[in-house]
Amino acid sequence: MTGHLEIREIREILLDMLKEVDSFCRKNSLNYSVAFGTLLGAIRHKGFIPWDDDIDILLPREDYEKFKRIFRNERYEVKYFDKDNNVIYPFAKVVDTKTLLKENISDSPEMGIYIDVFPVDSLPSNRIQQYLFQAKKSFLNAVYTLKIVNENNQRSFLKNAFLRISHVVLKRISWKTILESMERASMTYDKRKCTMKGILVPLDNRLREVVNKSVFDDYVDVPFEFLTVKAVKKYDEYLHALFGDYMKLPPKEKQITHHDYNVTWR
Question: Distance between CA 188 and CA 209 in Å, rounded?
Fold first, then answer.
């Protein structure tokens, strides 16, 4: 099989992957929920957002670590920087080994079609502690972005020149050092002393994903295309935190995918 895969084919593969991940989590008593746009799609569209082409899930930190450690499948594998030096993301991915995906805007390595897997960590409700965490998160996000993003002709000369200089400066800092720093930052706080939780991986400078920890206590079944998947029971509270009036469609000009990649069969 050759040639680029169309969005319909990519979605079919993603659904097969999600089916396997869901089955594995249920069999091993791991709490998980579809996340971000996947959760929004499940609630608003009963499946994919019409212009979207990816799947995200989340797990509480303990279940996330167990999932990384024990997930086994003949076709799909978990990729994470602590066991694969080619991975340059601070969260796990379940990757399809029969496809090849290459992102066009970054220095990321080639891998297969993937599901992003995010850990849920704890954060205090104290505003000062949140501000300090956000400052650290913003700094690490800036370093990460400058290291991963490539020059291209869509950017101005000055932006490309800045990226070139940044790459020279950051060349001395290994990916492993940056990713370990990001993970440590996400795990800063003791969950027993915190009232808030969220996806704290510093790829976004905001803390909009942080909500009362009770949001991640219970999970329910929701439809997603032809599958039944898991979602946080308090999805309304969580989606309002993420998107505001989440049942309202965005303007037509914003109904576009944010992913720029090519996918082929291996």
Answer: 16
The answer to whether position 162 is within a domain reads yes
Tell me whether residue 2 is in a domain. no
Specify the number of domains making up the chain: 1
Give the model confidence (pLDDT) of 25-46 as tens digits.
Answer: 999 999 999 999 999 999 999 9
Tens of pLDDT, residues 121-169 = 999 999 999 999 989 988 998 888 888 776 666 667 676 676 777 777 7
% helix, strand, coil for the chain, step of 5: 40, 20, 40
Q: Is there a domain that residue 151 lies in?
A: yes
Domain that holds residue 51: 7-265
Residue 226 backbone dihedrals phi, psi, to 5 degrees:
-95, 5
3-state secondary structure of 202: coil
Non-local (6+) Cβ contacts of 56 within 8 A are 34, 35, 36, 37, 38, 39, 115, 116, 117, 118
The reply to whether 1 falls in a domain is no
Q: Which two tokens stand for residue 100?
A: 């090849």
Residue 77: phi and psi, rounded to 5, are: -140, 150
pLDDT in tens, 71-98: 999 999 999 998 888 888 999 999 999 9
Residues belonging to the chain: 266
How confident is the prediction for the chain on average, in pLDDT?
90
